[in-house]
Amino acid sequence: MSKESAPPPVALPEEMTPGKPARRASAEAMAARQRDISVSEFFAKNRHLLGFDNPAKALLTTVKEAVDNSLDACEEAGILPDILVEIREIVPGTSSTNPGRFRVAVEDSGPGIVKAQIPKIFAKLLYGSKFHTLKQSRGQQGIGISAAGLYGQISTGKPVVIVSKIGKGRPAYRIDLRIDTKRNQPDVVAEDTVDWSGKDHGTRVEIELVASYRGGRTGVEAYLEQTVVANPHLALRFVPPKGDPIEFPRVSYDLPREAIEIKPHPHGVELGMLLNMLQDSPGKTVKQVLMDDFSRVSAAIADEITSRADVPSTTSASSLHGEPVERLHKALGEVKVLAPAASCVVPIGEALLIEGLKRRFKAEFYISTTRPPAVYRGNPFVVEVGLAYGGELAADEPADIMRFANRVPLQYQAKACAISEAIYQTNWKSYELQQPKGSLPIGPLAIVVHLASVWVPFTSEAKEAVAPYDDLLREMKLAVQECGRKLGLHLRSRAKAESEHKRLTMFQRYIPEVASAMAALLRVPHDGIEGAFLAALPKFVNIAEEPKEEPSPVSDDRQLPPSSRT
Amino acid sequence: MATKKLTPPTKLTDKDTKTLDKLQRLAAKALETVRRGANPTLEIRARTLSNVSFNEQKRIILLGDKTQAREFFNTSMARKFMQMFLVASGCKTLIDEGKTVSIRQMYYMTKHTLRGSNENTFEDQSESDPIIEDLEVGIDVLREELHLFANRRGLVVGSLVVNDAGDVIDLARMGRGGWGIPSICEDDNLRFVRTDAEFVLLVEKQAIFHRLHEDRFWSQHKCILMTSEGQAARGARRLLQRMATELKIPIYVLVDNDPWGLYIYSVLKQGSINLAYESMRMAVPDVRFLGMSAFDYKKFNLGKPAEIKLSKEDIARAEQMKAYPWFQDKKWQREIQGILDHGFKMEVDALLTKYVSFITEEYIPKKLRDRDYLQ
Question: Which CATH number fits domain B155-369: 3.10.20.30, 3.30.300.130, 3.40.1360.10, 3.40.50.2000?
Answer without folding.
Answer: 3.40.1360.10
